[in-house]
# Entry
Amino acid sequence: MARSSTQRPTRVGPTTTTQSGPLDIDALLDDPTTGIIVCCGSGGVGKTTTSAALALRAAERGRKVVVLTIDPARRLAQSMGIEALDNTPRPVTGVDGTGTLDAMMLDMKRTFDEVVMAQASPEKAQQILANPFYIALSSSFAGTQEYMAMEKLGQLHRESQAAGTYDLIVVDTPPSRSALDFLDAPERLSSFLDGRFIRLMMAPARGPAKLMSAGFSLIVNAMTKILGAQFLKDLQTFVTALDTVFGGFRQRAQQTYSLLQADGTAFLVVAAPEPDAMREAEYFVERLSEDGMPLAGLVVNRASPSPSGALSAEEATTAAERLRTQDATSVAASLLRLHADRVRMVEREGLLRQRFSTAHPQVSTAVVPALAGDVHDLDGLRRVGELLAGGGA
# Structure
C-alpha cells in the first residue's frame, strides 16, 4: 500500500506552530518515519483498546508492528487471538494485508531480571536475583512498572533497529494515577542511586573500611542490633549490586527518554468525554509540552452519538410534557424525554471538547463514538480503528 503524506506530530511547547483541525490517524500510521506511538491518559479511558486498534490498523496498512500493553483485560488478549500475553512478542493471526502484528504484555519482574542477567556475570546475577531486597524491589516497589516500561521500550527499539523486526512500536502506558510517570523514570532512578543513604551503604565496597566515618559505624552497629546482621548484609549486597548493575539501566533509561523526544515518536493523549478525564488530558498535554515531547493529538473515546431527528432538548421536553398531560403512560412522552436527555449529553460533551480546543488550539482531535458492546475480536478492533480514522471528520 502506498504511503500517504502526513502532517508531522506537533511538538508542543514554546516553539510550537499552531495546528488545528481533525487528527489524521491514517496519515500518522502510514508515515514511515513514525516509529513509536505512545498512548497515554488517565485510567479507564480505553488506552489499551486504542493501542491495539491502532496497531492492527497499521499492520493491515502494511507496517510491521508490535504493540506493548501494560495491563490488558483478558478479553483484549482474546480479541487478538492470544490466550495469555507475556513478555515475549507473540504473532497475532488473522491480520489482513501485507503487514504483520505481534503483541506482548509487560512482565515487570521478568524485565527487571533480564536487566540483571544482561549486566552481571552468571554467578553475580544469581546472587542478585536471590536477594530478598531485589525480590521486593522488582515485584512491588513504587515506580518499578514505569522503569520497566521504559526498559522494555528501549529493548524493543534496539532489537528492531538491529534486526529490522518492526518498523512501528505502539506503547500502552501504565495504569497509574499519572500515566506519564514513566517519563520521570531516569531522574527518579538517578536520585535513588545517588542518594546519601545509598552512597553511605556502598562506602565499604568502594574503599577500605577505615574510610567509614565513626558516626556511620555507630549507625551500622545500631542497625545490626535492631535488624540483625543478615538483614544488613543482604541490604549492603543489594546496594552494591545497584552500583555495579543498574548504572547501565540508568544510562539506557536516559537514552529511551531521548528516544521519546525524537521526531520518530508520536504521543496520543486518550480521554473520555467527562470533566475529570478531560482535565487529565489537559494535564498530559501540558506535561508533554514541558518535556518537549512530540504530540500527535487527542483521542476522545466513547463519545455519545448524536440522536437522530431535528428536535432540540427543549422542544422534546415541551412535547413530552404535553403528551404526559393527556396520557400519563404515554410511550411517546418517555421516548421524547430520553431524546432530550441524549441531546443534552451530546451538548455537554461538545462543550467539554470545545473548552479543550480553546485552551489548546494546536492539538488535533479525533472523536470516537461509543460502541454498543465490548471489543472481543479482531473485527471489533478493526471497527475501533475505522472510527479512529474517521473520528477527525
Notes: DSSP finds 15 helices and nine strands in the chain.
